[in-house]
């Protein structure tokens, strides 16, 4: 109960498995594959490192991958539509089901984060590449009670 989401998903190894299960689905999906046309395997690893930081693990995305600012910038210009976001969430729910321990509170909490985070990604994606995002603040942290900060 007092453990972090990071521990409960199995740390970075668990998040890599989740990321791989998710992108296997994304790249086979006719709606999302074109959005991810520039996908590279580093993307998979970067998503795992981002999630580790958000879920209470090491702050490596901030330390070596550009932090919150870089995460937001990755989505500029993508023009994500509602149906893209819904499909993204469907595929993530399937990936969670496939690779994470069978714990409904953990899955529900992760999906709360993904509902919140995908809305931000969609909003940012309407702005063109190169838009100045100002100072977005530190990487958000998510726990069993929702947004920590
Ligand atoms: C909580 C929600 C999300 C998280 C945590 C997330 C995470 C990330 C991360 C970490 C990157 C950078 C990858 C890298 O550095 O290589 C990225 C890029 C990207 N994201 Fe997201 N993302 C989210 C939502 C979405 C949604 C809803 C879409 C579209 C439906 C999307 C589409 C993309 C695309 C197309 C890229 C660039 C791909 C590439 O560089 O090959 N993301 N995302």
From TrEMBL:
Keyword Metal-binding attributed: yes
Keywords: Heme, Iron, Metal-binding, Transport
Family matches, as InterPro entries: GlbO/GLB3-like (IPR044203), Globin-like_sf (IPR009050), Globin/Proto (IPR012292), Hemoglobin_trunc (IPR001486)
Residues binding heme: 46
Protein name listed in UniProt: Globin
Gene Ontology molecular function: any one: metal ion binding
PANTHER family according to UniProt: TWO-ON-TWO HEMOGLOBIN-3
Pfam families: Bac_globin
Family that this chain belongs to: Belongs to the truncated hemoglobin family. Group II subfamily.
Organism: Frankia canadensis
Entry keyword Cell division: no
């Amino acid at each position: 109960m007092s453990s972090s989401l990071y521990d409960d998903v199995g740390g970075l190894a668990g998040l890599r498995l989740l990321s791989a299960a998710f992108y296997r689905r994304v790249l086979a999906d006719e709606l999302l594959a074109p959005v991810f046309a520039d996908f590279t395997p580093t993307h998979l690893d970067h998503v795992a490192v981002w999630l580790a930081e958000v879920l209470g693990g090491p702050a490596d995305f901030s330390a070596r991958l550009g932090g919150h600012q870089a995460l937001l910038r990755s989505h500029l210009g993508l023009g994500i539509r509602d149906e893209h976001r819904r499909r993204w969430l469907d595929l993530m729910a399937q990936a969670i089901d496939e690779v994470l321990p069978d714990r409904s509170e953990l899955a529900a909490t992760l999906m709360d984060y993904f509902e919140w985070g995908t809305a931000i990604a969609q909003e940012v994606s309407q702005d063109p590449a190169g838009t100045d995002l100002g100072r977005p603040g530190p990487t958000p942290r998510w726990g069993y009670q929702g947004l920590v900060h």
